[in-house]
Design brief:
four-stranded mixed beta sheet; Arc Repressor Mutant, subunit A; alpha+beta; single chain; about 260 residues; Nucleoside Triphosphate Pyrophosphohydrolase; 2 domains
């Protein structure tokens, strides 16, 4: 019997546990991870779901699943990879690249570096039929052909126009002058914030200054709030990322 911890909309663990398969209590969430495994060639490990999977059979996806009771997000990610594709990942090789608040779950998206062999024969479940290394372009084609699980669409958000404004650490060194690119910059910064987490103004400033090196968190806070990427308390003491982010193209169209 698989059990999960339950969380509030602000990622606070309630102390309650939930049995998989039962309806979640209204207003509570469980923690889910997606894991994108990247090799030195910039390709990602994509797996084909087995034909007997109850949802999305024979569709491509990244590794993913629910975090078990007592697990951290990172430990859940590493366990899911071992179970589904038989690979042992180093905790030091992973980082959260995106998170989201969805209908009944808090989603953490991890990216891990891995250059070893594919070891599907060492998987401890039969959830995956096969796996392959694929380029972003190949993954994009799968999505367009409706062969990729549709909930992974966030992976295809295209920030390539911001490349001249990034350093090697994907930190913005300046804010673009053109309006559309500014919108992409605001969206990018929002996507880096942890979903379902309250930040004090000082904590938010600290995060923004980590990812945008031009030292103007006040402007970024205001612009992200005005475009409904952030919410805040009336006194401005706390900020949080809005609920599920729309696809980047949809967000841009809303404000252009």
């Amino acid at each position: 019997m698989e059990t999960w911890d339950l969380y509030t909309e602000f990622r606070e663990r309630t102390g309650e546990e939930h049995i998989r398969g039962e309806a979640l209590p209204e207003g509570l969430y469980h923690l889910v991870v997606h894991v994108w495994i990247r090799n030195r060639e910039g390709k990602y490990l994509i797996s084909l779901r087995s034909a007997d999977r109850p949802i999305f059979p024979l569709m491509w996806e990244c590794v993913g699943g629910s975090v078990l009771k007592g697990e951290s997000s990172q430990n859940g990610a590493i366990r899911e990879v071992k179970e589904e594709v038989g690979i042992d990942l180093s905790p030091d090789a992973g980082r959260i690249i995106f998170s989201d608040l969805r209908k009944d779950s808090i989603l953490d998206v991890w990216e891990f570096d891995y250059d070893g062999e594919l070891r599907l024969e060492h998987a401890t479940t039969n959830e995956v039929k096969e796996c392959r290394w694929m380029s972003v372009a190949e993954i994009r084609s799968l999505y367009a052909e409706q062969k990729l699980v549709h909930t992974l669409g966030y992976f295809l958000n295209d920030f390539s126009e911001l490349q001249p404004f990034f350093n090697d650490g994907m930190q913005l060194v300046s804010l673009p002058a053109k309006y559309k690119k500014k919108l992409k910059a605001y969206f990018y910064l929002a996507s880096r914030l942890t979903a379902a987490k309250k930040y004090t103004e000082a904590e938010l400033n600290d995060r923004l200054n980590q990812w945008a090196l031009f030292g103007d968190p006040a402007t970024l806070r205001r612009e992200m709030y005005n475009r409904h990427l952030l919410e805040r308390t009336k006194d401005g003491g706390y900020y949080w990322r809005t609920g599920e982010l729309p696809p980047l193209d949809e967000f841009i169209a809303r404000y252009v």
